[in-house]
What does this fold into?
Amino acid sequence: MRRLAMFSAIVICILWTAPQSHSDQLKTGIMKSSPSPNQITSTPKPTPQVPDVKTAPGVTAPVPTKQGITAHLGQKATIAVKSPVQGTQHPAGKPLGIVWDRSTIPAAATVNILLVDKPGGTAKATIKAGAPNTGSFTSWIAPQQYTAAGNSWAIRIETADSKASGHSGVFSFQPAAPPMVGAQKTFDRSAIKIQIKQTLERKMNQIVAIHQFNPSTETRLKICQQQSKSFSDTLVQCLTTNSDPVNPPPGSPLDSFNKLTNAQLAQKCPDSLQQCLDKVLDEHVAWCKANACKSQSEALTAIEAECSQIEALLSQPPSLKKNTPPCPVLYQNYLKAREAVDNFECNIIIMGSFACIPSISHLMEAERDALKKLEDNGCL
It folds into this structure.
């Protein structure tokens, strides 16, 4: 019995591990793949299909693009340009408002804005290349060459890849109004001459104020500033004499201004007469300095340069860069002459300020000579 039991166990093991037949495998697979009653199955959603659009012969059907633009096969997408509007006249010299529908192209795209002679025509100017797709551009002022009367234009907006474009309506520029002519504006010549005198007096006072004597603790600079004041007074006297509104020097800017006709005067001074007179008299003063008052102007320029040099020397004396003879001796002579000027004293109350000028001028001349010798010998 024991052996029989063992034999039965062996047979069972062999049958359990033996390969299944094809039919058994099929049955097993079906059982494994069949869902249990408790399992919930889901139905996959159908994939949307592009509808088959029927069109007439020779007409292409619209297809959706990546950007959401609806364009025809083989055709560019159209950008709607809302401004400028057809038939409008834009004032010359003012920024032109350009507006387009930004939704027809991607927000990150850039556009080229062009001025064309007509919708679909030739580009005459690039207003802005690579402009962001904001839907508007309002900072362009048309150059004068495009604002002449009789010319008409349109605006073209196109993407950088030229896959989308659009045109505005035809518009033109309204030329700027011409300056007023004599019949529209008159001038009181006697009042102008009075105004010229007042303006000239103000300008002469400005010249005097620039060279006004400014007391300094250093005597040399005081004297130089007094001389500068004297030269500036001489120049002002010359300028005033040669700026007579009634009889200015021939060929001067003031003479040319007086000879203008009423119509010419209106064109030269379309806005403010005072601003116009300021400009004319500035030109006249410059003309006098170069012609009628040339010597006085050059003398003032020279004394100003001398005062600047003295003022620079007041900070500290120039250093000696060459110690070989005769430089050391010349340098000591210069320092003594400089010290004499610094220590100069004059009783202005007893002698008067002008009585002191010859003495200090002599000392200053000695200092300049000592400095020149240093420069001539290459000591500084």
About this structure: The chain has a mean pLDDT of 76. Residues 75-174 form a domain with the Immunoglobulin-like fold (CATH 2.60.40.10). The chain has three domains: 75-174, 189-307, 317-376.
